[in-house]
């Protein structure tokens, strides 16, 4: 061998020695990005199944070699004492965890209902009376009767009655329409008391049902209005009518002369005392709507949780061929496509039951589809991120998360937040609450002033979920690699 060949061989050896550590470091420094496509939900779950099958096969072979048959015994046998202690220890831990979950998570929903009766005064209702009227001023008998009824012990704490001097009907209705008040009871003119007194004194026929009106909108909150607002308004109407019949009318009639009273015998003014005429400005006539605006929203949360499981196999096949960055982008895009198509099916279901989507806008079906899509994307993205973490750390936590997420979303959504403890104001930031408000605008044509906030919160959830998804994928892959590596070492 020549010196030049020797020198060349030495150089090659040196290059190999230098290159080998570099390759070794490169092969053993698996980045989080690389692990994203190696450790997916599907591959990890099926690796666990394969490990279980291999372990079972090894145990069978070992027992066959030792020619031993498994010895089974009763649960209370002395031979089972050690396993029995282990069983009870694990059983107690599981029961304590379930108890803790029930006490912590279910308390959220129960807490939203606790002492609601003491907070009904937070539901403000306008009480518009004549200028100068007060509870002690008998110069305005109609307005005085309204104020006395609202201040009675039976009615005072049913709603937040808010007295105000006379203003025109349009302003009052517009205030309720803008959701500044949950309803209004108002006199129709600034001299209704004078009109009533003159009709009695002159013996004139007079339509007493036009003196006081009431206005509310069931569409603002179908459950809250029907449970708290409407019954209280009806009770106020009854209380007002009783005061007019038992106190105001006898007092007014006692001031009439015999001739004036005689003229009243042939007209209806004497027998028809003033009553409050209530009007529901946005009635709910189709009770099928309850499905999409309430129960359907709960189903959306559950549906988006299960779609994560159904697409594990497809995602695994994509992970086997895509680069890590491409795989992450694929997961983001495919999730949005899933929500778009699933929400279309959900919207078609509601259309099949002839729900009218065109109360607020023409082409309401498309608007409903987009609201459903944004809702599914907002809650589905959160479900997917948390499912990745829970599946890696402790799979049973996924069920706990689903219940917790549903409870947090609905506890104060389908009833006025004002009647719940102040803690539940977090509901305004939850996706289901904002979707619920959007659904009501679309289906009932309620006030549109909060559309920007509602859409903005749903979009914010979607953006946040997509920002967190790559980190959740990397955490899942890193944690599962560590767990499987540790399990492999312990088996040897």
UniProtKB/TrEMBL annotation:
Residues 1-29 are annotated as: Disordered. It comes from the Eukaryota. Signal peptide: none annotated. Residues 95-467 form the DUF3533 domain. PANTHER family: NITROSOGUANIDINE RESISTANCE PROTEIN SNG1 (PTHR34814). InterPro entries: DUF3533, MNNG_permease-like. Residues 16-28 have a biased composition (Basic and acidic residues). Pfam families: DUF3533. The chain crosses the membrane at residues 91-110, 289-311, 332-353, 359-379, 386-407, 455-479. This is DUF3533 domain-containing protein. It comes from Ogataea haglerorum. Residues 1-10 have a biased composition (Polar residues). Keywords: Membrane, Transmembrane, Transmembrane helix.
């Amino acid at each position: 061998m020549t010196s030049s060949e020797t020198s060349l061989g030495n150089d090659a050896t040196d290059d190999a020695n230098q290159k080998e550590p570099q390759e070794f470091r490169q092969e053993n420094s698996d980045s989080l990005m690389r692990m994203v496509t190696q450790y997916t939900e599907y591959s990890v779950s099926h690796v666990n199944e394969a490990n279980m099958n291999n372990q079972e096969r090894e145990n069978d072979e070992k027992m066959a070699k030792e020619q031993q048959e498994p010895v089974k015994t009763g649960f209370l046998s002395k031979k089972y004492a050690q396993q029995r202690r282990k069983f009870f220890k694990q059983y107690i831990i599981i029961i304590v965890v379930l108890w803790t979950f029930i006490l912590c998570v279910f308390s959220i929903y129960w807490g939203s209902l606790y002492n609601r009766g003491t907070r009904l005064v937070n539901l403000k209702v306008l009480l518009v009376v004549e200028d100068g009227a007060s509870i002690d001023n008998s110069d305005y008998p109609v307005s005085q009767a309204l104020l006395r009824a609202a201040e009675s012990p039976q009615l005072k704490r049913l709603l937040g009655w808010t007295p105000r001097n006379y203003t025109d009907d349009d302003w009052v209705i517009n205030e309720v329409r803008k959701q500044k008040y949950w309803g209004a009871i108002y006199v129709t003119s600034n001299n209704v008391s004078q009109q009533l007194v003159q009709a009695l004194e002159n013996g004139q026929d007079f339509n007493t049902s036009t003196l006081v009106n009431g206005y509310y909108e069931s569409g603002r909150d179908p459950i809250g209005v029907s449970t708290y607002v409407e019954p209280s308004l009806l009770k106020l109407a009854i209380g007002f009518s009783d005061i007019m019949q038992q106190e105001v009318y006898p007092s007014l009639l006692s001031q009439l002369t015999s001739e004036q009273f005689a003229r009243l015998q042939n007209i209806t003014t004497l027998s028809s005392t003033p009553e409050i005429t209530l009007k529901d400005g946005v009635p709910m006539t189709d009770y099928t709507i309850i499905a999409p605006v309430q129960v359907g929203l709960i189903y959306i949360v559950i549906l988006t949780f299960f779609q994560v499981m159904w697409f594990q196999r497809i995602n695994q096949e994509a992970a086997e061929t895509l680069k890590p960055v491409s795989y992450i982008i694929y997961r983001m895009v495919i999730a949005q496509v899933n929500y778009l198509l699933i929400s279309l099916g959900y919207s078609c279901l509601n259309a099949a039951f002839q729900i009218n989507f065109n109360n607020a806008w023409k082409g309401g079906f498309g608007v409903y589809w987009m609201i459903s899509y944004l809702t599914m994307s907002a809650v589905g993205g959160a479900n997917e991120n948390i499912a990745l973490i829970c599946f890696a750390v402790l799979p049973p936590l996924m069920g706990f998360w689903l219940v917790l997420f549903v409870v947090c979303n609905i506890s104060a959504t389908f009833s006025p937040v004002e009647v719940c403890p102040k803690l539940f104001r977090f509901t305004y930031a939850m996706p289901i609450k904002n979707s619920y408000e959007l659904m009501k605008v679309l289906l009932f044509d309620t006030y549109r002033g909060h559309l920007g906030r509602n859409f903005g919160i749903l979009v914010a959830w979607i953006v946040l979920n997509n920002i967190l998804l790559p980190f959740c994928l990397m955490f899942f892959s890193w944690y599962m690699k560590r767990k499987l590596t540790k399990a492999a070492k312990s088996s040897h």
